[in-house]
Protein 1
Amino acid sequence: MDQEQLAKFTVSTRHFNRILIAIDDDDFISSRFAFDYACTVAKIYSIPLAIASVLETGDLNVFQSLDPDVLAERRNEIAKDLNIYVEKAKEAGILDVVPMIGEGKPGRVIVEQMIPQFKPDLVVVGSETHPGARKTIGSVAAHITRFSPCSVIVVRDPASAPAPKPEN
């Protein structure tokens, strides 16, 4: 961009129309802050919010994955948790809340199935941070960020942010 183009540039307002929040049923901390952010934006814009959770079939051993009772129990647990998130979103003032459940590899299921079905223009994901670990995003957040056809924001636990360095 040259100086003339930059001088003519004006800031325009960015408005989202549909948000999908990816919830990790096994990681409440990273999901919580992402969920708070998604609910805040959905409420401010008065737009639909999809709350997506994926049963990670890769986390099950061979015997569990072949046992219909184990799968049914895990599906039921995810559905109950998802319903709690839906109720929390409604309590926060979001009028249009859509629960979504999938099975498989979370990043792939969200990008290949849930995003095309709900058609969000913003996906919100959390990212787990371990104390003392480098600040990298998890594999699911990375996959969604890399392959999503729409904007993606990664929200971290504010407590995991590095402390500001004192000025001399």
Note: Helices lie at 3-8, 28-45, 62-66, 68-91, 106-118, 139-147.
Protein 2
Amino acid sequence: MQCVPKSVSLTLRGVLLAIAVSSAAATGVVAGTMGPGAAYKLVPHRAVYDMKLGDMEEQSGIAGLSGRMVYDFSGSACEGYSVNFRFVTEFQDANGGSQITDLQTTSFEEPKAASYQFLSKTFVDQELVEATRGTARAGAGAKTVELKEPSEKSLEIGREVLFPTEHLLAVLKSADEGVHFLAADIYDGAETGEKVYATTTVIGARTLSPVKAGAQGPEAPLAGLSYWPVTVAYFDPAEENASGELLPVYQLSFWLYENGISGQLKLDYGDFTIQGRMAALELYEEVECPRH
């Protein structure tokens, strides 16, 4: 029994990795004053989010949803960035049936986006239903992808296509500079490793966190920080409607804090939404890049 559209479990991986949550996904980023040649600093952390069903329409076929998302980020600009991500959800349909989906991914992005390695596994009721593994590399003319699973295959993607952390840095740079709209193509190994998503990111005004100094709870480390409300829409260029219009496959809205940590998640699939609230946050020790 398939309670949930296949795209939900597969593309959630892309969502979290794309924003490096996250946004993403996810990734802490210190967005200080940016001068020429300055870089954003990604702060390692582990964030846990409780997920629940938000708004829904009758045609969604979903009666209930609960789950937990764990996003673990480590690394540095000189060593590269590692992400371990897991999202377990239980869906209930209108007929009383249920299904547990367990999405597990790991990835490593080399410094300066030289390459991107990924492994993704999707389990449905504890049975492995899909695995994707491969490596994408940046080249002079294009980025190339070598897939190992679900089958061995080589393909090319555009030179301007961004890897997940590369995209996060672009969003933060735009936010810091007061740019409110960013369009970019993203590759994160989603689906069977052959998909490139077109995205548009809308960035709102910088706002002070509502978390007060001395507050208790998982969001306490966010006290005194600023954030930008961000919405990222994901489009599949191959899926135009009858009028030739390209509609988003899904949209992700979240608060992107100046240290890169994301809160107030909302995944919008059109006929239903999933909301995420931070349940735990642990900041890891930062690794400083050596000075030359």
Note: The mean pLDDT is 81.
Protein 3
Amino acid sequence: MKKLVTYYRLSKEELSKVIFPTKEQVRNAFISVILVVTVIALFLALADFILGSFVSSIL
């Protein structure tokens, strides 16, 4: 039982050291991720279209 109490106390102490992001930081990170994913998806779609057209013209 003593180990459990010690574990709980240490966990609570470590959790008090955590710095959680603000709403603005979360929103900015979300927008950045969506933007990067969209750009990469568009690039891959363009590359697929170009390479597909190239292979189709060869065959």
Note: Residues 21-59 form one domain.
Protein 4
Amino acid sequence: MLLNLLVGIPVMVLCLVMQALFVAFSLRPYVRYVRGGRIPASPWRLTLLLSAVMLVMLLGNFVQMAIWGLLFRGLGEFDSFATALYHSGVNFATLGYGDIVMTERWRLLGPLEAANGILMFGVSTAVMTATLTDIIKHHFDRGRPD
């Protein structure tokens, strides 16, 4: 069990740093346009901006699944990266299918990845909610007479 924690916790920290980088990257266009006072007037441009933030956050989650998959492959748990990535995705999304099970030695890494995944999806949701709330606030503030 201790070995699983010694291996899994640094990967969780790496994923946290990766998520922070993806948050910073996804918010760059948002900060440039919305906080800069240039809210897109067109609903299509606003949708594109929000979609870009969402896609970058999803990419960040996928990269983290790939990191866990590489760890599982590196530990010799799976013969192919595709299988390791599939198992990682099931863990990260907290689906828990159980169709592929790791050996008893490394089995605790699954729940660690699930805890990591649910936290990171929460961060992605928070970023999207904050972005949308701020855009709505700025939109109404702009339309209010001084």
Note: The chain has a mean pLDDT of 88.
